[in-house]
Design goal:
This protein has 6 helices and 7 strands, in the order H-E-H-H-H-E-E-E-H-E-H-E-E. The chain is an alpha+beta fold. GO terms for molecular function: acyltransferase activity, transferring groups other than amino-acyl groups.
Length: 176
């Protein structure tokens, strides 16, 4: 999809629904998509149904990224609590066939332009990206996030200790 055809199709965000399960499975069962994710590749529809019912639908801010109302990925904002309630973590995933087309960058910009108004207490939106996931790092940079540094040996992912790059956008930033 060329940049001008991206502009001609409407990217929307909406809450996920059980009826999205077939579209969800398109990216959740793809090893290329789950490679840098904390979750393992899905292997069954029942596993996906359990996730949608018990985690995604009740999540405080879980949206599907849609083109023509068809779910092609998801984007989440997960709030912290207590003394950390001023910040939340951004996460996203997109079906492989849509990579490299600017879709996630646009979705991240959409979230950044609205989440600070939706959650008045929020001052910082942060994202953690595997050091080898250059595409995701570019998404955040293009969306106006600031690269703050590398957290060494920050998380165990799929049995291995991984370094992650932290990016942030704060409510006082003018770039969004």
């Amino acid at each position: 999809m060329a940049e001008n055809s991206l502009q001609s199709c409407k990217i929307t965000l909406r809450p996920i629904q059980l009826s999205d399960i077939d579209d969800f499975m398109l990216w959740a069962k793809d090893d290329r998509v789950s490679h840098y994710c904390m979750w393992e590749t899905y292997t069954s529809r029942d596993q996906a149904l359990d996730f949608l019912t018990n985690i995604a639908i009740p999540h405080p801010w879980f949206r599907v990224i849609c083109i023509d109302n068809r779910a092609i990925g998801s984007i989440t904002v997960t709030p912290n609590s207590g003394n950390d309630r001023c910040r939340a973590e951004l996460g996203y995933v997109l079906a492989y066939e849509h990579w490299g087309k600017g879709i996630v960058t646009k979705a991240v910009k959409m979230v950044a332009s609205s989440i600070f108004n939706e959650w008045k207490h929020l001052e910082r939106l942060e994202a953690f990206v595997d050091v080898d996931n250059k595409g995701s790092q570019r998404v955040l940079e293009k969306a106006g996030f600031v690269r703050e540094g590398v957290f060494r040996k920050h998380v165990i992912m799929k049995g291995k200790s991984r370094d992650r790059v932290v990016f942030s956008l704060v409510s006082s930033d003018q770039s969004f």
